[in-house]
């Protein structure tokens, strides 16, 4: 068994696929930065991301997949479901082994699993577009914290660029420790350590615009006023807004305790 170690990026995985074919590696298992607890007795093949090799694989996929299929392949990677790299490799092997289009061959387990992973990513991106809640700092920067199940930040950035084109904003993925910043002209990726400690009145006073706490409370009162107690259906509510998102939704944050 050969442990194929790559840097966790899509380009790194594509490079790994190229080298598996290049060096005729067999019985391979993918590992991000060597993190694997399943292989006690194995040899390692360390992959250094090479964009030329990655593009060779991308071009091969593009020639054999439809435009939607090609886009879906990347979205499957972003799903980050368990063993998705292995599933994608099996799918790629199937694609490269035939000249026919196999995207709709759901009798093949890899094809079906790729479809499920793609739908999961699409669903999570759609939810993030609805669940992002911005807060305003004193220097007029709108920021939001998200923790999506899939790595969808780059899939939703243009939605917010178009919707909030006249505002500077930062959306930060606390799970993956990176964010997207919009400066009124361009989008850029930023990496930073962001402390998500409990919000306090003192903290808001220090970093937020003077009116931010007022508007947060106004937003909470609005949601409270439109809620009809007799029609409350928590099962349906949680189905549309799972609890894992609540910690970053203003309307779900408990009232701030004055200190």
Automatic annotation (TrEMBL):
This is DNA metabolism protein. Residues 84-251 form the DUF4130 domain. It comes from the Bacteria. InterPro entries: DNA_repair_put, DUF4130. Pfam families: DUF4130.
């Amino acid at each position: 068994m050969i442990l194929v170690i790559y840097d966790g990026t899509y380009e790194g995985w594509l490079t790994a696929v190229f080298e598996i074919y290049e060096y005729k590696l067999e019985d391979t298992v993918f590992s991000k930065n060597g993190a694997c607890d399943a292989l006690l007795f194995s040899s390692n093949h360390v992959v250094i991301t090479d964009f030329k090799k990655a593009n060779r694989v991308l071009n091969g996929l593009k020639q054999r997949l439809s435009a939607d299929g090609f886009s879906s392949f990347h979205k499957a990677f972003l799903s980050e479901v368990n063993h998705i790299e292995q599933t994608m490799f099996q799918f790629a092997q199937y694609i490269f082994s035939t000249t026919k289009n196999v995207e709709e061959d759901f009798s093949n387990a890899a094809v079906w699993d790729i479809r499920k992973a793609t739908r999961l990513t699409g669903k999570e991106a759609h939810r993030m577009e609805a669940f992002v809640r911005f807060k305003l700092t004193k220097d007029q920067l709108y920021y939001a914290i998200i923790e999506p199940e899939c790595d969808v930040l780059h899939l939703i950035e243009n939605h917010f660029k178009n919707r909030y084109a006249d505002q500077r904003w930062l959306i930060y993925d606390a799970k993956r420790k990176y964010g997207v910043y919009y400066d009124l002209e361009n989008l850029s990726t930023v990496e930073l350590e962001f402390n998500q400690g409990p919000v306090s009145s003192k903290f808001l006073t220090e970093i937020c615009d003077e009116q931010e706490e007022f508007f947060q409370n106004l937003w909470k009162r609005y949601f409270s006023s439109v809620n009809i107690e007799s029609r409350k259906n928590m099962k349906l509510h949680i189905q549309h807004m799972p609890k894992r998102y609540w910690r970053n939704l203003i309307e779900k944050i408990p009232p701030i305790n004055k200190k």
